[in-house]
Amino acid sequence: MKKKLLPSFKSVKNKKNLDQLNSLVMSDRPEKARTEKIFKIQNNFLEEAISKKDILLHGMFLEKKLIGYVRLPLVLEHTYLIEPILVSPFFRGKGFGKLFLNEVCRLVSNKKKFTILSNVEKDNPASIKLHKSCGFVFNPNPIQVGLDDVKEHLQMIKRFK
After folding, report:
1. Using CB atoms within 10 A of its CB, is residue 136 exposed (0-12), middle (13-18) or buried (19+)?
2. Which of 17, 18, 123, 148 could crosslink 12 through cysteines, CB 3.0-4.6 Å?
3. Kind of pairing, strands 137-138 and 153-159?
């Protein structure tokens, strides 16, 4: 019987992880990543996360290979926004997204009295199901934070007391 490998999670807030993070993002949407403009925007987005103290940046690794990352800026007092959570396309549908989102919740729950917001694409039922399975509910009063237009997304929320 083959032993199932479990991922590890750690902060990736250093410049040496930048190339790995950019490669992961490009593997998710190769048609968008081809343009130099998009690459520069993404690179700046990640560099900002590395340099600012109020942004958490964590990676999910499998045998030392980065297979997912999450960027969590502090957007309001005691409120983080998942912007984005990304799992490599090769590892989707295998439970890694749920492991990662639960790890993100554990990380934030250690801070007490915090909230996590996530703007989920309306036409992504897998993401909606994932968030619900990790205890997120639809936010009845969406807050405009981050890059996403809340009219184009469903905002989900999870509170920690």
Report:
1. buried
2. 17
3. antiparallel
Assess contact for 120 and 156: CB atoms under 8 A: yes
CATH number at residue 124: 3.40.630.30
- pLDDT per residue as tens digits for the range 21-49: 888 877 766 565 556 666 777 778 888 88
Residue 4 belongs to some domain of the structure: no
| Residue 3 resides in a domain | no
Asked, for residue 70, whether it belongs to a domain, the answer is yes
The answer to whether the CB of 118 falls within 8 A of the CB of 156 is yes
Which tens digit of pLDDT belongs to each residue from 104-117?
A: 999 898 877 899 99
Tally the domains of the chain. 1
